[in-house]
Amino acid sequence: MVQNGASILDLNKRVVSLDAFRGFVMFSMLLGTFGLKELSHYPIIGFIYTQLTHASWRGFHFEDLILPWFLFIIGAAMGLSDAKRQKSGEIYRVRLTHVTKRAITLFCLGFILSWIGAGKPYFGPGVLQILALCYFGSFLFLGKSIKFQFGVFGALLFIYWFFIFVIRVPEAGRNSYVIFKNLVYLIDNKVTGSTTRWGYLYTVITSTAVVIYGSIIGKLLINRTSHRQFMKTLAIFGVIGVFSGLMLNPFIPFITERLWRQLNELVGIDEVQRDVSRSVRGSHRVECAVHSADCGACKGAAVLSHGHIECGGAQV
């Protein structure tokens, strides 16, 4: 990284700050809960344990910050990498081909892993598939100006909210954020035939918005004239985002567990997309049409099929 207020970042060197942040996020993904559940009745330990688990539906914990951080890093790294490729003389067509190949490879790998995990062809959500779609979608705007990218960022968040607001969902109506009864899950069920509580296709809109935002920050990092000014800009963006999110929260509530919404993106929070076979446990309870009981203790992920919530695994 360029030091002492140099006019531009040295694209041939590693960006230490980004590497450090990436390492922190990867470490956070591996934290788990340290077996703290048995001691969670103690106030301080209970608070730590809660932050290392996902919020059941509304609100957010530390664990819910990891995926938006990861998407942000992808965007920032894209901005740096693309600038380096342009500097080396690569034309847009070559760079687009490179990104397309990587996106297809990543998507196919994710599909194969989902297939293996489900034991059959599975067209539902997967971490790598989502990353591939966001990676490719955000690259299409990478060469645009920062103002244009900000416009796209805002437009994606508005579009996501607008259709949730105007499209009526069976049993819930318009503007629904009820679990398993909202536009996110309706689209997934119609297109893929199954729905997990994390959401998939429609949430790619806001996922892509996060990557685009990260690429904007990457550009600002490259073009910075001073470290102090760059940090000041980040602080301003952060304050505006948090304030906007909190102001809108009464009308568009914070929701975790992969129901990504524009409010979460404004304050940089969201859900870590786990493997589709992750258990639906703990405080989360849903009516299961298979077991005719709460499925909070089921090993498999709950899915919405033919209008009923079913359990994807055996009951414990």
What's the shape? globular
Query: What order do the strands of the largest sheet run in, or round the barrel if closed?
Result: 1-2
Compute the number of strand runs. Answer: 4
Mean of residue pLDDT values: 75
Model regions low in confidence, pLDDT < 50 over at least 5 residues: 1-7, 257-316
Q: What Rg do the Cα atoms give?
A: 20 Å
Strand content: under 5%
Could you characterize what this model shows?
It is a single chain. The protein is mainly α and 316 residues long. It is built from 10 helices and 4 strands. The strands form 2 sheets. A two-stranded antiparallel ribbon has the order 1-2. α1 (16-29) packs antiparallel against α3, α3 crosses α5 and α6 (146-166) runs antiparallel to α8 (204-222). The protein is globular, with a radius of gyration of 20 Å.
